Amino acid sequence: MCGIVGYTGKESVTDQLLNSLELLEYRGYDSAGIATLNGETGKAKLRKCAGRVKDLRKLCKKDKKVSTCGIGHTRWATHGGVSDTNAHPHRNGDVLLVHNGIVENYEELKDHFMLHKELKSQTDTEVVAAVLNRFYHGNPHEAIRETVKYLRGTFALVIMFSDQPDVIYAIRNVSPIVAAYNENGTMLASDVVALGSSAKKYMVVPEYVIMELHKTEIKLFHLDGKPCEAEYIDIDWDTTRSGKGSYPFYMEKEIMEQPDALKATMESRIVDGKIDLSADGVPDEVLKDCERICVVACGTAMHAGLVAQSLVQSKLKMHMSVEYASEFMYADPVIDDKTLVLAISQSGETIDTLEALKYARKQGAKSIAVINVKGSSIARESDYVMYTAAGPEIAVASTKAYTTQLITLFLLIGRMAKVRGLLDEAAEKGYLENLVQAPDKMQEVLDQRQDIHKIARQMLDAKDAFMIGRGLDYSILLEGALKLKEVSYIHTEAYASGELKHGTIALITENTPVVATVTQTKLKDKELSNIREVQSRGASVVLMVKDGFELADAEYADVFTLPAMADEFMVFPASAALQLLAYYVSMDKGLDVDKPRNLAKVVTVE
Ligand code: F6R
Q1: Dihedral over Cα of 14, 18, 24, 27: its sign
Q2: Quick check: is 601 in a domain?
Q3: pTM of the model as a whole
Q4: What residue ranges line ligand 1, CB within 6 angstroms?
Q5: 78 pLDDT band (50/70/90 cuts)?
Q6: What is the mean pLDDT of the chain?
């Protein structure tokens, strides 16, 4: 959470920082700030405010003097409320600092260094700035080295010292920092999308290494002062794709990109009509030898795990648990060297998923991470990585990352079934024939988006809504409900429809909106009868039904027909329909679809 940036080079820094911060707003958007250092005058300038980057832009408009070195921050408040004072950067003496992460022992540090009188904000970050300044006597490395010895927690610290013109220093533990250069200067950011479109390569700054950004070069040093070799990765995302194009919101653009993203994710993994994970380097023994599978993930990524769970049970006849990463290690999970842990994450930085993965590996588990962001912390922590090819996902609500996670999991499980002797050649062929249709079936739904828009218009005044289904439909709806609630603020519950009559049906009254998906042959009749139960209590039911399923002549508020695939693949068209529903409700309510309140895309606090 929180986005940080830094630039030093030939160009005016203010616009560079503001533009990059706008691209990082998905990480937090309750306040923003920049600090610039003028190499000629030696003067540092601080501009910060509660609000969005656009408010900060207004604040910076009057600034006349041009600086070419600066740092910036967009905040998701953790310690200290949303205010101008708590916004970053923080200054103490010669130190100007922005921070992403949480320094857990900041109260102790206040006492230890007797800082109470000099602090203006309630943040942990200002404490770090003060400690840095205590240790700063003209030697930045010494100040950083001494300070980090005292810090407990996660941090990406980006620092300017007012008497060190044109140089930016950075160090991190867990929270990410990436860096790159081009002919005009050097830059760093929390995420590669903010590095500018002209950079061709970037590096993930190693943990506990001091980085110096100079105008023409980037240097890395271990804490003992020895130089550290930088490892650069090609930027293979088209960073210009991170713009909204002609769409009003990233969420719509990202929903529409799904067919291509699915194809790209499958491309290298289907060779000569067979699933081939050799490019991912996942050895068949790992897939063959494990006795149980455990998913650790959060939110939408966890919902992808739930869909995979049905598949694992039906295809692999194996036990698979799907755990909230945040609960995982506190529940004393049974993990050993026969466990295969799947860590699923778009950002690869979700702290709970990272910690759960580390815990499982300590117990001897093997791990495969399903990740979108290359070189991210979870990717580096895992034994093996399967990257999704979703490209940059900017909207806070995850869409294309989810469906590319699904397709990756379908491929992984297909390969597991093959190497375990549970999928012969003919069955593999059939499985893949279905899977490769997923992009087209999603496209069919996307092409009918105006019909879903009409359905959405009926839900604008709803305060509460339910989504009901059984089996795989229930897993699909858990994600559908998360999407609707987070972007539309309609309180939405997904419910296993057979469970309704054990309590929750008491909440169904006249016109309660209920969305039901009916996509599973063996459950269809039971699902339809559960729908009739809520209809009898006045619910207004929108039905999303697989093409070809016969319906008795019940009255529905609306029916959307989902293009048919084999049952286990219906998650693809159904998810597209549910994502569009959430999107249109939010848009028509006039909400900030891409940046729902209180949320941030990358959750780096526990
Ligand atoms: C919801 C959403 C979140 C994320 C969750 C995990 O739309 O995006 O629930 O899925 O925060 O994030 P990652 O996948 O980055 O680990």
Answers
A1: positive
A2: no
A3: 0.84
A4: 298-301, 345-347, 350, 353, 397-398, 482, 486, 603
A5: confident
A6: 94
